[in-house]
């Protein structure tokens, strides 16, 4: 196909404009940074899933494949400068089935989840995730259990089958009892499926609390910086001898203990949690950097968050220029 004679020049100019616009947006607009980071997060997971699928396919659908997904996802916290601190991992019962229940703030929960995910443990996920392209297929291969939240009867019968599987195939299950993502600084009322499941199988419940992300991540404010998150594993709650009638009280008791810990590890928030880390992109985009701009474009979402240098002069200039303009606009 013949291109119009000036087309290459126009394409090149557009490309250069993009090269200028993207870093400018990245540095000057926290919202743009939020969108870039979330897009990269999802895109990166989809890409990793493409790599994981052939490896997992060797075994077929198998809970052991969850180890592969875990290993592939563990590095993401470094890309985003998120320090994940695990406390209480000794509370995991060593070798028996159990049900993990955990709070659910965002898809970033995957980071904390992968940090502590025990062996032979599979999450229960909404059915829609099955259609999330390569990630859905990777989840299916790793034995993730899918439930249709719109069909309570079906969801409950899947959970009952899982209760059998827990015992016969020695697996653990990870449930987000809030049933949906919730980033409002508290926890939604718990759905009872996980607790019925544990009581039916007479296995312990292991509550896990992930501290609030408010310091470094807020969807509403389109804010996503680097920060710290604590993952606290609480002592197992036995269910032996309990019956379905005990489920409401059991769910309330577990939620209460989780909420207490959530408040405890999230409150020292502003001061104690998010320490802004230094940024790689300042190093990469520095005028003395040997790397050309286009490679920094590819690299800075990847290596965000670790190395010390202060912003390079042109970044400082751009930031102060935008600040001056914003103040001038606000003043006029
Ligand atoms: C490299 C690539 C990597 C890819 C990533 C990999 C990682 C992927 C990670 C993915 C992470 C993905 C994360 C995600 O996707 S999170 C979203 C999906 N997960 C959940 O929804 C789990 C939590 N939900 C529940 O437990 C619900 O209760 C269910 C779904 C079961 C029903 O909810 P529903 O809203 O429809 O109904 P209801 O809760 O009002 O219950 C109605 C009644 O039924 C009773 N009842 C409930 N259950 C049982 C039972 N088993 N036996 C007997 N009875 C039971 C219950 O007590 C109540 O009765 P009553 O008490 O009012 O009298
Ligand atoms: C070819 C099709 C392409 C589909 C592209 C889909 C894009 C999705 C990209 C990557 C998938 C990342 C998988 C992350 C899993 C995070 C699990 C999660 O957080 O699910 C939400 C669920 O707990 C509750 O859902 P709601 O809060 O009720 O909503």
From TrEMBL:
Single Gene Ontology MF annotation: 1-acylglycerol-3-phosphate O-acyltransferase activity
Keyword hit for Transmembrane helix: yes
TM spans (from-to): 6-27, 39-60, 129-147
Domain Phospholipid/glycerol acyltransferase, chain residue ranges per copy: 98-213
Annotated metabolic or biological route of this protein: Phospholipid metabolism; CDP-diacylglycerol biosynthesis; CDP-diacylglycerol from sn-glycerol 3-phosphate: step 2/3
A Pfam family hit: Acyltransferase
Record-listed E.C. numbers: 2.3.1.51
Stored SUPFAM superfamilies: Glycerol-3-phosphate (1)-acyltransferase
Any GO CC annotation of this UniProt entry: membrane
Presence of keyword Lipid metabolism: yes
SMART domains according to UniProt: PlsC
Swiss-Prot/TrEMBL keywords: Acyltransferase, Lipid biosynthesis, Lipid metabolism, Membrane, Phospholipid biosynthesis, Phospholipid metabolism, Transferase, Transmembrane, Transmembrane helix
Function: Converts 1-acyl-sn-glycerol-3-phosphate (lysophosphatidic acid or LPA) into 1,2-diacyl-sn-glycerol-3-phosphate (phosphatidic acid or PA) by incorporating an acyl moiety at the sn-2 position of the glycerol backbone.
Family matches, as NCBIfam families: AGP_acyltrn
UniProt protein name: 1-acyl-sn-glycerol-3-phosphate acyltransferase
Source organism: Equus caballus (Horse)
């Amino acid at each position: 196909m013949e291109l119009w004679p000036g087309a290459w020049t126009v394409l090149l100019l557009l490309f250069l404009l993009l090269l200028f616009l993207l870093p400018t947006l990245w540095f000057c607009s926290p919202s743009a940074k939020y969108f870039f980071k979330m897009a990269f997060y999802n895109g990166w997971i989809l890409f990793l899933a493409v790599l994981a699928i052939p490896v997992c396919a060797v075994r077929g659908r198998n809970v052991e494949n969850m180890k592969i997904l875990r290993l592939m996802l563990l590095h993401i916290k470094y890309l985003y400068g998120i320090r994940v601190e695990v406390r209480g991992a000794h509370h995991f019962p060593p070798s028996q089935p159990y049900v993990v229940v955990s709070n659910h703030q965002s898809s970033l929960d995957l980071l904390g989840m992968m940090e502590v995910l025990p062996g032979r443990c599979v999450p229960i996920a909404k059915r829609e995730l099955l259609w999330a392209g390569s990630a859905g297929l990777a989840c299916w291969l790793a034995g993730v259990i899918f439930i249709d939240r719109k069909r309570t009867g079906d969801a409950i019968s899947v959970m009952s089958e899982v209760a059998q599987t827990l015992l016969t195939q020695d697996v653990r299950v990870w449930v987000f009892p809030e049933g949906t993502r919730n980033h409002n600084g508290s926890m939604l009322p718990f759905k009872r499926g996980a607790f019925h499941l544990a009581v039916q199988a007479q296995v312990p419940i292991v509550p896990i609390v992930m501290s609030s992300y408010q310091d470094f991540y807020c969807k509403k404010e389109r804010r996503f910086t680097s920060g710290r998150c604590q993952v606290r594993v609480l002592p197992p709650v036995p269910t032996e001898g309990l019956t379905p009638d005990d489920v409401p009280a059991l769910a309330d008791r577990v939620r209460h203990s989780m909420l207490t810990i959530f408040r405890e590890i999230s409150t020292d928030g502003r001061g104690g949690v998010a320490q802004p880390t230094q940024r790689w992109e300042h190093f990469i985009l520095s005028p003395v950097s040997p790397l050309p701009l286009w490679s920094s474009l590819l690299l800075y979402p990847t290596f965000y968050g670790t190395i010390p240098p202060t912003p390079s002069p042109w970044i400082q200039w751009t930031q102060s220029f935008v600040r001056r303009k914003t103040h001038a606009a606000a003043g006029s």
